[in-house]
Every structure is written in C-alpha cells, then in structure tokens.
Design brief:
heterodimer, A: 168 residues, Jelly Rolls, 5-stranded mixed sheet, 11 strands, globular, B: 179 residues, mainly beta, 6-stranded antiparallel sheet
Chain lengths: 168, 179
C-alpha cells in the first residue's frame, strides 16, 4: 500500500489561524491523530497551520508504543504545499516505547530522546516568515489501527523585531 | 488517622474560572500546597478547576523529597453529582493524569512531556496512558484537578507546586482530529 497523506479539516480550510492577536500572547493549537488503519512507512499527517510572524514556543507530543516506529516533524510552505523539510523540527525520533517529548526534551519508554533528534533548523524561538504547516511523517514499522498520537503547538505572534530578538 | 481532604479557596468557590476568553489563548493557573502535617495514605488535595471547553496543554509540577517511598497521583473530579457543589466533588478518576508516580525520597518535577524523581525518569505509564487523560484532552464539563498521596508520608512543610496550562475551544476548530 502506498503512503497516505492525512489532513485536519482545520489544515485544509482556506483561512489561516487568526494572526491579529496581541503580540506576545501565548497561543495554542491541539490535534489528536487516530490511526485509521495500520500506518505505513511514509504516511504523513498535516497537523497545524501557523501564521506568518508566529514565533515557536514549543511542540508537545504523546505517542503509544510501536515496534521500531520513528516519527519526524517538519514544515510545509502553506501557500504552495511544498515541503520545506520533513525533519527540521524532529528528526526520526525512535518511538519504540510509549513516550512524550517537547522541544525541551523527551523520552520513549524510560529512554531519553536525544537532543540531536529534537530541534533541527527549527527550534525554540523560530519565527515563521510565511504561513507554515507542521507535518508529521511516520517511518520505520507501522503503528497499529486505533493507535492515537497527540500534538500541541505553542506560539505567539511577533509583528516586528521587538519580541524575538538576537542578543548581541 | 483517617485520610484528610484539603481544598484551595479557588476550588471551593462556586464561581468557575473565566471561560469567556479568546479561543486559543493559553491560560494558566497555579497552586502551591504546603503540607501542614505529615501526609497520610489517601490524603487528597483539591487544587484547581478548569472550565468546560478547556483543552489541556500541560500540567507542570514540582515536589519536595518525601522522606520515604512516597507516591503521588493526579486525577480529575467534577462537582458533586447530587448537590452540584465543589466542597465534596465526585471523582472521575484519581490517577488519569499521573498514575501513582513514584517520588521515592527524592525531589522531582514532571510535566505532560515527561518528568523525573531524583535522577530517574518517570515512565510514560506513570504520566497517564494514552487511554487516560492525554495531552490535548478537551474537558466537556467543568473539571477539578486533585492529588492523592499514597504509601509513605511527605513530611510537615513539604511543598508541592502545580501549574496547569490550557486554552479555550468553543467549537471543533482548535482541537481537531486528523482523518
């Protein structure tokens, strides 16, 4: 069976999340992904859309045990649908035991998920310059029918250079 | 000594936390509980309440060393199913967020993203299974969060800190299934 792409209704909608909110106010979106059939290598789920100017605070995930499962989180340019990178947030984290992670660290079973797998080019404080989608990719062996994954993204809006600045 | 139930003022108050806030804006509540005496097995502390429609983002907690093989559970409850009051709430489940997380004689911290006691990781099984109350759970009724102490006692003056983060979702637009 070929890999399948899944979308939230929210992701497919023509309007992006409200970007006209007070600068610095912490915002969140949540997604529950229930595997409808055994997941296959390369299956993708388009989870969230973040407005231009959003500054990434955290992404939290919770996942069940799966045999040799790995998961990646990446980004998509929403306007074109082009994948920027499938692994620029989380790079093939092994998820053989039930676990959780955030951009501050994580674990599966009782084993830490290494920092090298979490936080690639896009990590804490990254400011999105275009409307951007967050993409999940399943790799390794399959998750099973009715397995559930949970994701929450935290971000705030920055309309200038005042909220997310470099030191120096 | 019988187990004792303790309540924060905010918990007993019959005015629910404000739920008329912008959808998606992250809200927080914080409670510090200082044990007034050694805790006993089965003691409960009713911490805080979240409104109907709240989507759980995180529960962040910190605890002092227990002085023994202490355990700590975090669960949910609703207003008393008979009286509708919060001074004797009805338990939903005592362990559906943290399931008897062993905090054996070591200070530690946990969130829904993981946690540790001393230098040992808390397993995912202790932080709520995927069949319990997970990350991103949307509360369908006003809900209280409370802790239950198990096994050995925490000492007098032991401190516990809890912060809950959530956002309000008034429809199906913010917390959606993939399919």
């Amino acid at each position: 069976m070929a890999a399948t792409a899944y979308y939230t209704d929210n992701y497919k909608a023509a309007t992006v999340p409200d970007g006209n909110v007070p600068a610095g106010m912490l915002l969140a979106q949540a997604v529950k992904f229930t595997i409808g059939a055994a997941a296959y290598v390369g299956d993708t789920a388009y989870l969230f859309r973040l407005p231009k100017g959003a500054v990434l605070v955290d992404i939290k995930a919770q996942f069940p045990a799966g045999s040799s499962v790995t998961m990646s989180l990446g980004t998509v340019t929403y306007s074109t649908g082009a994948t920027v990178s499938a692994t620029n947030i989380v790079n093939a984290a092994a998820c053989t035991g039930a676990g959780r992670f955030s951009l501050a660290g994580g674990f599966q079973g009782t084993t830490l998920v290494s920092s090298t797998l979490i936080g690639g080019a896009i990590g804490v404080g990254y400011k999105f310059t275009v409307d951007t989608g967050i993409l999940y990719t399943n790799a390794g062996a399959a998750l099973t029918d009715d397995d559930v994954l949970y994701f929450v993204v935290l971000y705030y809006m920055d309309y200038g250079a005042d909220m997310a600045t470099d030191v120096g | 000594m019988a187990a004792t139930a303790y309540y924060t003022e905010a918990f007993r108050n019959n005015a629910a936390p404000d739920s008329t806030v912008p959808a998606g804006a992250v809200m927080g509540q914080f409670v510090q509980y200082t044990a007034g005496a050694n805790t006993y097995t089965g003691d409960t502390v009713y911490l805080l309440r979240v409104p109907k429609g709240a989507v759980l983002v995180d529960v962040i907690c910190q605890w002092d060393a227990s002085g023994g093989s202490g355990t700590l559970s975090l669960g949910t409850c609703i207003a008393n199913s008979t009286t509708g009051l919060w001074n004797s709430p009805t338990v939903v489940q005592a362990t559906n967020i943290f399931n008897v997380a062993a905090v054996t004689n070591s200070a530690g911290r946990a969130s829904l993203s993981g946690g540790f006691t001393g230098t040992s990781l808390l397993s995912s099984a202790l932080l709520g299974t995927t069949t319990a109350l997970p990350l991103g759970y949307k509360f369908t009724v006003d809900t209280g969060l409370y802790i239950t102490f198990g096994t050995a006692a925490f000492p007098n003056d032991a401190d516990f800190y809890f912060t809950v983060l959530y956002f309000m979702d008034y429809g199906a637009d913010m917390a959606t299934d993939v399919g």
